[in-house]
Design goal:
The protein has 10 helices and 10 strands. With 297 residues, it is α/β, with parallel strands linked by helices. The strands form 2 sheets. It has an 8-stranded parallel sheet. It has a two-stranded antiparallel sheet with strand order 1-2. It starts with 11 loop residues before the first helix and ends with a helix. It binds phosphoenolpyruvate (PEP) and manganese (II) ion. The site of manganese (II) ion (MN) has 5 residues, from loops.
């Protein structure tokens, strides 16, 4: 029985005709549309690793963490210059100054940079400094913002709303595609579930990853940092997400070399560059296994 007004997966061809595999058969049942950010390819053979601080806090911190994640083997740099915080009294990010620091870190390391834009009026400014625009979980259904990033001609990292279903998430992506921008990477970042907050920050929805890949040709990555909120869980969550078909990871990292003890934002979920290196080694080993299996076949 169809309940009036209820959005079901069968509605996807109507909600997102530009992005559904059912209405765009060109990508077949399994092929992903590649999203290129500089030399980084989302949806290609190898999962992409984005790493960096939660927030850009200072020039020294940003350069240090950027160098360390580069040394660990990351493909891209992350860092928030504009931060969506629960309280307006918390650190809100360095804004334009932070964007300049990210650009400098990107130039030095050669890592393309992704950073969040929260305000439609700032899409042009953030686009000047970023290689990829991030739409945060809290803004997934900010439709004027989605339209604006759709017009920006920059690749977009669209995080899943923390309470959004698959149809709502893909509907949000459709707003971006509808402006002619198909360079969209989806990111599962944990959802609110019954036990959320009790032992982990959110609940990493692993099952959505194969569902996304079945319904759309857009690449999908996972954010084990915000999903768990617990540094000790990040490595396991990363491996699990890869096993479920995630085509990349976005991970928060803090330097253990910096004098300033703790990041001002999300300190409990930041992993060390050493742990990041281990996650990337795991990806290397998986890639080798896949190649060996392909040759053997
Ligand atoms: C972030 O990645 O910086 C962030 C704030 O994540 P989310 O929007 O998923 O909470
Ligand atoms: Mn964070």
């Amino acid at each position: 029985m169809k309940i009036a007004g209820k959005v079901e997966i069968d509605d996807l061809p109507r909600i997102c005709p530009l992005l559904s595999r059912r209405t765009v058969p060109r990508y077949g049942e399994a092929q992903t549309r590649i999203v290129q950010v500089g030399s980084v390819r989302f949806g290609g053979e190898r999962p992409v690793v984005i790493a960096g601080p939660c927030a850009v806090e200072s020039r020294g911190q940003t350069l240090e963490v950027a160098r360390e994640v580069k040394g660990s083997g990351a493909d891209m740099l992350r860092g928030g210059a504009y931060k969506p915080r629960t309280s307006p009294h918390d650190f809100q990010g360095l804004g334009l100054e932070g964007l300049k620091m990210l650009r400098e870190a990107s130039l030095e390391t050669g890592l393309p940079v992704v950073t969040e834009v929260m305000d439609p009026r700032l899409v042009e400014q953030v686009s000047e400094y970023a290689d990829m625009l991030q739409i945060g979980s809290r803004n997934m259904q900010n439709y004027p913002l989605l339209v604006e990033v759709g017009r920006a001609r920059k690749p977009v990292l669209l995080k899943r709303g923390m309470a959004a279903g698959l149809c709502e998430w893909l509907g949000a992506a459709e707003y971006i595609a509808n402006e002619g921008n198909f360079d969209i990477v989806l990111c599962e970042r944990g959802i609110k579930a019954y036990p959320s907050g009790e032992y982990s920050r959110y609940s990493l929805d692993l099952s959505v990853i194969p569902a996304v890949r079945a319904e759309t040709f857009l690449p999908v990555i996972a954010d084990p940092s915000h999903a768990t909120g617990v540094a000790a869980m990040v490595e396991g969550a990363s491996r699990a997400a890869l096993e479920f078909g995630a085509q990349g990871l976005i991970i928060e990292v803090a330097s253990d070399r910096l004098d300033a003890a703790k990041p001002r934002c999300d300190a409990a979920q930041a992993i060390s560059p050493r742990t990041l290196r281990r996650i990337i080694h795991y990806i290397d080993a998986r890639q080798e296994q896949h190649l060996a299996a392909m040759h053997a076949a």
